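We treat protein structure as text, and this decision shapes the records that our systems exchange. We quote a single record here, exactly as it is kept in our systems:
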Amino acid sequence: LVVSPEDAEQQVRWFEVHAHSVRLNSTPLDVAGLFQGQMACHPAAWIFTSATLAVGESFEHFQQQLGLTKAETACWDSPFDFSEQALWFVPKGLPDPAAPNYTDKVMELALPMLEASKGRAFLLFTSHRALHQAADWLQDRLDYPLFIQGSAPKAELLKQFVEHGNAVLLGTSSFWEGVDVRGEALSLVIIDKLPFASPGDPVLKARLDALRKAGGNPFMQYQVPQAAIALKQGAGRLIRDVTDRGVLVLCDPRLLRKNYGHTFLDAMPPFARTRALDDVLAFLKA
């Protein structure tokens, strides 16, 4: 892997060791310049649309990433009646996410909700370790079909999930977006933690270091907005049509304890909210 001196400071380089090979990688720290070059080569109107481009109603994070300094932005209301179709539950009493028994406590909380919803649930995790710990915990306690990411191809898992109509699916990052399950097959989405990216990611670490050296606040300027968008994507698995109805559960107590929690709250759809498990059980059984 050869990098010219003028590019060296603008690239993050790392290697991966596999069973029979070594892979060398190089990724730009900032893609804004490259993207602007592509836009200059194709002079036209560029339109970006997504339900998850903005954090709250601010497009600043997305614009900074792509160097879109003069973009016109707008938000439109969703056709869904979120306050009637969905309930957002932030439970009380869970330990800090770093606690060794955190996933077990999340599963203890989840079980009565899974019974009330008669399965029909996604459990979304921020790590494979937590996913497998949850799978082990649920294995002999759940009366509904249990599908676990990695046990079959993603498309096959989703097909079986929908066909059963009362299944529980456990997934990590690949199930947080691009998954469309409409109707009664999915009525409960449980998220274990705020989806901060892994600090061990070499590209993330290099970008945070570069932002810090430039005098910025890497956590608030990069990690929190990225996680808020990821949370919005995960929550978006729940309501996919005007007739859908369900409960979103975010187990992470940091949402309400930390001063950055308002960024996540502002980024989310206007679901009705509760902190009472009884409200959730009543909603699911209605």
Residues 5-66 form one domain. The first strand starts at residue 11 and ends at 17.
